[in-house]
Amino acid sequence: MVLAWQEAVPDIVAQGNARTPLGRPAEPVEIAEAAAWRSATARPT
Q1: Around 26, how many Cα atoms within 13 Å sit in the side-chain half-sphere?
Q2: Strand ranges (DSSP E) for the chain?
Q3: Is 23 within 8 Å of 17 (Cβ atoms)?
Q4: Can you give the residue range of the structural domain that contains 22?
Q5: How is residue 44 annotated by DSSP?
Q6: Dist. CA 13–CA 34, nearest whole Å
Q7: How many domains in the chain?
């Protein structure tokens, strides 16, 4: 599905990367670290 999308819109990856603060997709470890930090700082409700 993604490959077909990239073929239809060749610069779609560059467009997406331009809209992210990192300018690239996050690595899995970066996402895990952010999730762990967020869960550690969350206030119980």
Answers
A1: 11
A2: none
A3: yes
A4: 2-41
A5: P
A6: 23
A7: 1
